[in-house]
Write a structure and sequence with these properties.
A hairpin with a 3-residue loop joins strand 1 and strand 2. This protein has helices spanning about 10-25, 35-45, 50-60, 80-105, 105-125, 130-145, 150-170, 175-190, 195-215, 220-225; strands at about 65, 70-75. Helix content is about 70%, strand content about 5%. The protein starts with 11 loop residues before the first helix and ends with a helix. The protein has 2 domains: about 10-75, Arc Repressor Mutant, subunit A (Orthogonal Bundle), CATH 1.10.10; about 80-225, GntR ligand-binding domain-like (Four Helix Bundle (Hemerythrin (Met), subunit A), Up-down Bundle). It has about 230 residues and is mostly helical.
């Protein structure tokens, strides 16, 4: 499979990064799995240089680790890491949403509401694009904060938490419930109500955390899920 961009819009390192990150976040490469450089040279049909560059970026973002004895491997998943990731997300995303509530325009509201409707349609249809749209909704809201540092930190936390969100999804309520949570958050931000927006967001994130932590607190469930994600 030749993934070289025909129009030069992306570098080979960008292509390698997108491929590796998707494989890690989706669980195709399970936690703890070694990353064999030659395997991806063959798979992506490119030299090792852009792949090494992509691996350095993923290491900086916490998705892979490196040790003298094990080499490069996908970062482990654990209850402690899950808790740490979500606790920080709760604080930073609440701050971003409060700032967004003061900045959202009618055009912003219309644009993000449209994203929610596209997410709803994809979710109800079981379309995998729903995952990307879900991220687009959240990041579009947080971008309205105008905070350079929040926008640097949140994507890194988001990528790690997406690995856990896969575990949570079967226990995370119906698609209709998840869609409604997003609608209510966007409506609260559009109404300029930061307190309600933060309350809704904290409930939204806590629901996902509680569903994901189940797989670590219940040994039987963890064993059952091991083949899917761990």
């Amino acid at each position: 499979m030749d993934l070289r961009p025909a129009d030069g819009a992306r570098t080979l390192a960008d292509v390698a990064l997108a491929e590796l990150k998707e494989a890690i976040v989706s669980g195709e490469i399970p936690p703890g799995t070694p990353i064999r450089l030659q395997e991806y040279v063959d798979r992506l049909q490119m030299s090792s240089v852009p792949i090494r560059e992509a691996l350095r970026f993923l290491e900086q973002k916490g998705l892979i680790e490196r040790s003298p004895h094990r080499g490069v491997f996908v970062s482990p998943m654990s209850a402690q890491d899950l808790d740490d990731t979500y606790q920080i997300r709760l604080e930073l995303e609440s701050k971003a949403l409060r700032m967004a509530s003061e900045a959202m325009t009618d055009d912003d509201s219309a644009r993000i509401t449209e994203l929610v409707e596209r997410y709803a349609k994809a979710s109800l249809a079981g379309d995998s694009v729903a995952r990307d749209l879900h991220g687009d909704i959240h990041m579009s809201l947080y971008e309205l904060s105008g905070s350079k540092w929040l926008l640097l930190l949140l994507p890194m936390l988001w990528d790690n938490s997406e690995r856990y969100r896969r575990l949570a999804l079967p226990l995370r309520g119906t698609p209709e419930q998840r869609i409604e949570e997003h609608r209510q958050i966007v409506e609260a931000v559009a109404a300029g109500d930061p307190d309600r927006a933060e309350t809704l967001l904290r409930t939204h994130l806590s629901n996902s955390f509680e569903a994901a932590i189940f797989f670590f607190n219940d040994p039987a469930a963890t064993e059952k899920a091991a083949g899917q994600a761990l």
